[in-house]
Amino acid sequence: MEFYNEKVLRRRNVIWQQNHEEDDSAVYSDRLWQWDSEKYDRCCMGVWGNRGQMFYDRKPEEIQRFLSLYLGKEVVLTQIKQEQNASSGYDYWLFCYRER
User: Fold this and answer.
1) For residue 4, which phi and psi values (nearest 5 degrees)?
2) CA-to-CA distance for 11 and 80, rounded, in angstroms?
3) What separation, in Å, do the N-terminal and C-terminal C-alpha atoms of the chain show?
């Protein structure tokens, strides 16, 4: 898996943050689906009961649970950023987290 830790990405479009630190791990929502769409769908179904790829109305506590399921370890969500794919126009999210 490819994870990102680029400081410049962490300063724009923050929509939620709690105890965020610069060295937290980060992962893009669309990459999670690309890496393993079946696992992504299973985890979404387990948390929300659907396979949606949009996170507009999803609560941080739910996203934290989703990430823990997907990553196979307990994590603490520290920041959510919303971005837009320049070529497709679709939104995606950057989730920053750390292991418990």
Assistant:
1) -120, 140
2) 11
3) 20
